[in-house]
Amino acid sequence: MKRIYLDHITSTPLDPRVFEAMKPFFMERYGNPSAMHQEGLMARDALQKSREQAASFIGARRADEIYFTSGGTEANNLAIKGVAYASQRNGNHLIISTIEHPSVMEAAAFLETQGFVCTRVPVDREGRLDPEQVRAAVTDKTILIATHYANHDIGVIQPVEEIGRVAAEKGAPFFCDANAAAGWLPIDIQKIGAQLLSFTPHRFYGPKGSGVLYRNRKARLQPIIHGGGQENGRRAGTENVPAIVGAGLACELAGREQAERAAHAGVLQKRLIEGLLEQVPYLILNGPPAGPRRSPVNVSVSAEFIEGESQLLLLDHQGIAVASGGSCVSKSLKASHVLKGIGLDEALAQGSIMMTLGRENTVEEMDEVARALAGVAAKLRAMSPLWDQFQKGRIDSLVKPRPKTDGRMNPLF
Amino acid sequence: MADDKQMTPYTKTVMDHFLNPRNMGDMPDADAEGTVGSAACGDIMKVFLKIQDNRIVEAKFKTFGCGSAIASSSMATEMLKGKTIDEALKMTNRQVVDALGGLPAYKMHCSVLAEDSVKAALHDYLRKHPEAVPAGYVVPSKEEEQAANAQTGHGEH
Questions:
Q1: Domain for residue A413, yes or no?
Q2: Interface contact A383, partner B, CB < 8 A
């Protein structure tokens, strides 16, 4: 069965050109880049090339502002803990939003156990962070403002340039988590004005096992992994050369093809959102409408009266790969904190389905997915006691409430 | 049946009961029914029973929940059929899990929900038919039952 893969935010297939570039670094050019012999120097040269490709991808002026890590999570941890530990003399206060990626949320929560203080600035119903609220949260102890460029769950694009300006005015370093944006939205570090920025190329056809942290040379950063002094002393450990080579080329290709990839995703996104709203009754789009406020790859919806994992499993059974923000999908048994952060009703959060598009998806696939989800929703609603209650008029829909006739509404949620 | 070549996050039996649930549907002439769980927590189970001469002759369910919740309700209602009230009261979540060939640790609460919804339906019957209460068994009031279910994390909100 041909599958339809709609989970590009968690990982993408490797670009064949990237795979070809990586191959020699497994069995031929296997040297350790720290070594002084020919094998080592060859690997070192390859690392330098990747560093230049990654720097150029985000508009960094110097290749030595790029640090390779094992992935986006490590890059985020290094940025947050590294800045916090390096800045302890200046203060202990961090600012993030309520809807960051878990690697940012949890790194900040960990620092709170170490004597740091974290303000989590709330977002609006679309998930957008207000730069003025960020400004209001700054104190004379603030050592870091951290937020994301695009949201991994609902695709909302944050006003990072404005937040960068607030940070600059207040003299606080700004860390931009671009993991859910890189490869799909243009990134210009000079415009964003962030001192640190992270991303991982496996979200845009690069290999797993490699992440990138950009760090302006003026930003203080302590390593969180100690050892042999690799990555300019900021990240010890023998470099994952094949993955870094692949990451570099993935950056170069994404830089060249980003506009085209984003335009393709945008067409599919519009088609899928329209198809879903048309074919699945009692379904809402989470996050901003398709357009300038939303990443072109993200489609996050909630179908009312049914739960997310069961939708995911039925879709998977029909050959369609999606994700869900419902609690039964996460091992922590908590519904997505992002959906909670935008004030979505808890039952609707349980029914969420997250789809992220890629360059290999087609318009026909979008139509097929809308049809499939309509069928899945109908099947699960036939099993749902909530749907039954709704049919009998005992509870109302939050998505499309019945017109009020006698003033006796009975929302049982 | 789930396609043999497909990977599944659950056992084959769980997937089979999720994809082809047994006893799913309403029972307008049920002798008893019980509901536990809440939408906010991600699962609601409703069990309907038809009881003749102290024996369960028919069991049905409706469930809002994940794959293992739907499979647990399907299996629990399958296991109920033909049992006496006394036997059904002794049915545990462990028996449901074993019949399903196991559940991941973080999904065990789905089987607890199945046990509790079965008990809620049986209690509903016993409150209406005190003569059927097995000797020595204390039937909780509806309020006590809701309080107990709220404590285990899936009371009706």
A1: no
A2: yes
Tell me the mean pLDDT in the region A240-257: 98
Instruction: Report the distance separating Cα B92 and Cα B107, nearest Å.
Output: 15
Rounded-to-integer distance, Cα A32 and Cα A341, Å: 45
Each residue's pLDDT tens digit, A314-355: 999 999 999 998 877 776 778 899 999 999 999 999 999 999
Alpha carbon distance B96, B76 (integer Å): 6
Clarify whether B66 is annotated catalytic.
no
> To 5 degrees, how large is the angle CA A179–CA A182–CA A184?
130
Please tell me the distance in Å from A374's CA to the nearest CA on chain B: 16
Q: Looking at residue B41, which CATH number applies to its domain? A: 3.90.1010.10
Q: How many domains does chain A have?
A: 2
**What separation in angstroms does the CA of A275 have from each of A4, A293, A301?**
16, 20, 12
Q: Do residues A196 and A214 touch, judged by C-beta distance below 8 A?
A: yes
B153 Cβ under 8 Å from any chain A Cβ: no
Catalytic, out of A118, A176, A251, A328: A328
The verdict on a CB contact (< 8 Å) between B21 and A383 is: yes
Asked if A324 is an interface residue toward chain B (Cβ–Cβ < 8 A), one would say no
Say if residue A45 is in the same domain as residue A119: yes
The C-alpha atoms of residue A281 and residue A301 are separated, in whole angstroms, by 12
Amino acid at A115: G
Q: Which of residues 48-67 of B touch A (CB under 8 A)?
A: 62-67
Cα distance between residue B57 and residue B51, in whole Å: 6
A353: domain CATH number is: 3.90.1150.10
φ, ψ at A61 (rounded to 5°): -80, -25
